Amino acid sequence: MANASFTSTAGATIRPEEAAHFGKLAADWWDPKGSSAMLHRLNPVRLAFLREAIDQHWPGDSRALRPLEGRRALDVGCGAGLLCEPLSRLGAAVTGVDAAAENIAAARAHAEGAGLPIDYRHGELDSLPPGQFDLVTSMEVIEHVADKAAFVSALKARLAPGGLMVLSTPNRTTRSRLLLVEGAERLGMVPRGTHHWNDFVTPDELRDLLCAQDLAMGSPRGIAWSAMKGLHLSGDMALNYIVAVTAA
C-alpha cells in the first residue's frame, strides 16, 4: 500500500529503482480501479485519522469544512496527489514533493483540472525551506527509505514550531509479510515489487527514530482489513498503522 517515492540529500534514502517503479504507475494513479486501487480504498481511512488529529491539535469547530484555513501543509512522497487534494480542500496551502517526475506531472494535471492551487515539486525534500509547514504528512513512504534516520530528520526540519506531523507505514509482522507482500502482490491487488518486507518499520522502531529527533509519537492506530468493514481504523496494528507526531 505504498504512497509514492521520495529522495533527500540528507543521506542515502529512497532507492532509484523504487522511484522508477512508482513513476511507471503515474498515468494510472487516479483510476480507482487501476494499479492504485488499494490507495483509493486506504485514503478515506487516513483522512479520518488526519481530521481527528487536526481537530485535537488545533482545537476548534470539529464541523468546520476548512480546519486548515491559513495553515501550510507539506505531503512528502505525494505521488499524484491523492492526499494533497483533500488537504487543499480542507483549507491548507499545500506543497507536495515526490522523487518521480511522472508522478508530479500527473499530480499537476489533476489539480489543474480540479481547480486546486497546489504547489508540486519534483526532487528532494532538502530543497524546501525549513520550518515553514504547520502540517507535514508522509504516508506509506518511510518503508521505502534506506536511511530512515536522515529521512525523519529532514521531515522534522520542515515542521514549523507547534506543528503536527502524521505518518503511516506497514508494520513488520508475519501477517504483513503474508498478506501485503506475498498475498496482495501475487493476487495483483498491489503492483509487484511495491513492498520490501525487511524495510517495514515497527511502531517501536518508529518511536525510537522520532525520539532521536526530539519528536513525540502519539498512540498509533492500526489500519486493518475485514470482509465486513474493508479497510478501517483499528486497534489491530499487524498490517499497517498511522500516528500523529509532535515536538517532544
UniProtKB/TrEMBL annotation:
Keywords linked to the UniProt accession: Methyltransferase, S-adenosyl-L-methionine, Transferase, Ubiquinone, Ubiquinone biosynthesis
Pfam family, one: Methyltransf_23
Superkingdom, taxonomy of origin: Bacteria
Record field: catalytic activity: a 3-demethylubiquinol + S-adenosyl-L-methionine = a ubiquinol + S-adenosyl-L-homocysteine + H(+); a 3-(all-trans-polyprenyl)benzene-1,2-diol + S-adenosyl-L-methionine = a 2-methoxy-6-(all-trans-polyprenyl)phenol + S-adenosyl-L-homocysteine + H(+)
EC number: 2.1.1.222, 2.1.1.64
Keyword Ribonucleoprotein in record: no
SMART domains for this protein: PKS_MT
CDD domains according to UniProt: AdoMet_MTases
The keyword Transferase is assigned to this record: yes
GO terms for MF: 2-polyprenyl-6-hydroxyphenol methylase activity; 3-demethylubiquinol 3-O-methyltransferase activity; polyprenyldihydroxybenzoate methyltransferase activity
Binding site for S-adenosyl-L-methionine: R46, G77, D98, M139
Annotated ranges, domain Polyketide synthase-like methyltransferase: 50-248
Pathway: Cofactor biosynthesis; ubiquinone biosynthesis
InterPro entries, sorted: MeTfrase_dom, SAM-dependent_MTases_sf, UbiG_MeTrfase
Example GO biological process: methylation
Enzyme class, UniProt record, top EC level: transferase
Function of the molecule: O-methyltransferase that catalyzes the 2 O-methylation steps in the ubiquinone biosynthetic pathway.
Family as reported in the entry's similarity comment: Belongs to the methyltransferase superfamily. UbiG/COQ3 family.
Name this polypeptide is given: Ubiquinone biosynthesis O-methyltransferase
